[in-house]
């Protein structure tokens, strides 16, 4: 199984960005942790990050025929990008929405995910572990067949 872990805007600044909310692990450290977790489950993972809506959409399109699924943290686009939601629906691949923080326990505007209806499921609130749980969800779904 091959997955893309796709991160949206501002997630490249993890570690220095609002550490009280997002923790002190850097983007690279989190990617290494995900890679190790996936390798232990015989899952190949690639990583991509874009600060633009079009960049996220282009990466999603490029997943067709290249990946079995996507772990997506769309950042703030989660809350208002119908274009990303449509891209998720268009690629017809399972996409798991993840968030480091519990978006439902934060400001009102973060309670809505417009991408959630197009995603296989949502994992939020576990810090970097949110990504590891998404890897596990893909592993379990594959085991179930
Ligand atoms: C986030 C939550 C979003 O509301 C925010 O805009 C982010 C990060 C998270 O991982 O908790 O950029 O997706």
Termini Cα gap: 12 Å
Order of helices and strands: EHHEHEHEEH
| Strand adjacency order, main sheet | 2-1-3-4-5
The total beta strand count reads: 5
| Total helical segments | 5
Apparent shape: globular
Beta-strand residue percentage: 15-25%
- Helical residue percent? 25-40%
Question: What is the residue-averaged pLDDT?
Answer: 97
Small molecules (ligands, ions, cofactors) in the structure: 1,3,4-trihydroxy-5-OXO-cyclohexanecarboxylic acid
Computed over alpha carbons, the radius of gyration is 14 Å
**Unreliable runs:** none
Which secondary-structure class do the elements indicate?
alpha/beta
Largest sheet: 5 strands, parallel
Describe the protein in words.
The chain is an alpha/beta fold and 145 residues long. The protein is 36% helix and 18% strand. It has 5 helices and 5 strands, in the order βααβαβαββα. Strands 2-1-3-4-5 form a 5-stranded parallel β-sheet, with helices on both faces. Strand 3, helix 4 (82-91) and strand 4 (95-99) form a beta-alpha-beta unit. The protein is globular and about 40 Å long. The mean pLDDT is 97. 1,3,4-trihydroxy-5-OXO-cyclohexanecarboxylic acid binds at residues 10, 73, 75-76, 78, 99-101, 103, 110. The site of 1,3,4-trihydroxy-5-OXO-cyclohexanecarboxylic acid has 10 residues, from loops.
